[in-house]
Amino acid sequence: MSNRRILVTGASRGLGRAMTDAFVALGHTVVGCSRDETAVAELRKRYGEPHRFSVVDVADEQQVAAWAKEVLDAGGPPDLLLNNAAVINANAPLWEVTPAEFSRVIDINIKGVFHVLHHFTPAMIARGEGVIVNFSSGWGRSVSPEVATYCATKWAIEGLTQALALELPAGMAAVPLNPGVIHTGMLSSCWGEDAAAYPGPQDWARRAVPFLLQIQARDNGRSLTVPA
């Protein structure tokens, strides 16, 4: 499809912003959200209609419901839905992670994905086509110390997405995606200066965006990884 309608959560920074810039440059329409009001205002100024950017906390189901209604009423369901928004816990052994921080990571990384799926998937099913990509991680298929909370959420995304794939009608796809190791603020919070050894979001997007655009119904349920 030469002009696809692409929904990106966490569109204002890191991988989300890099994907947004790349999709727009290729002529696609991006519908994005972020919790950052200033960043959303900048996106709106940079990319006008038909692109749409909204201030939404995916952990808040009512905010997602209102956003979904606006998006669906304005242009129908997305062709490609990218559940990218996520946070990571500060490095710490699991027993030192506070209940508040544990809940914050769960609420955004798991509940946030569910909220978006809950409010957008029915319209995609009614149309009978569309691709859903839920961002996982290398830490959704392996583990490391001091990021147990984050690992738990990404392992959950793997299982949730593969189960969803079994529920979707023919012609649709849901896949968990490991984006690879990228130098983002999230990686820096874990690895410090060592994170700079890896490619940044813009370099990553040059590989990832064409890969994402090639995902089809035949990939339904596959655990995919962006090529290095």
From TrEMBL:
GO molecular function, one term: 3-oxoacyl-[acyl-carrier-protein] reductase (NADPH) activity
Transferase is among the record's keywords: no
An example Gene Ontology CC term for this record: cytosol
Enzyme Commission number, as recorded: 1.1.1.100
Keyword check for DNA repair: no
Superkingdom of the source species: Bacteria
Alphabetically ordered keywords of this record: Oxidoreductase
Family: Belongs to the short-chain dehydrogenases/reductases (SDR) family.
UniProt protein name: 3-oxoacyl-[acyl-carrier-protein] reductase FabG
Lineage: Bacteria, Pseudomonadati, Planctomycetota, Planctomycetia, Pirellulales
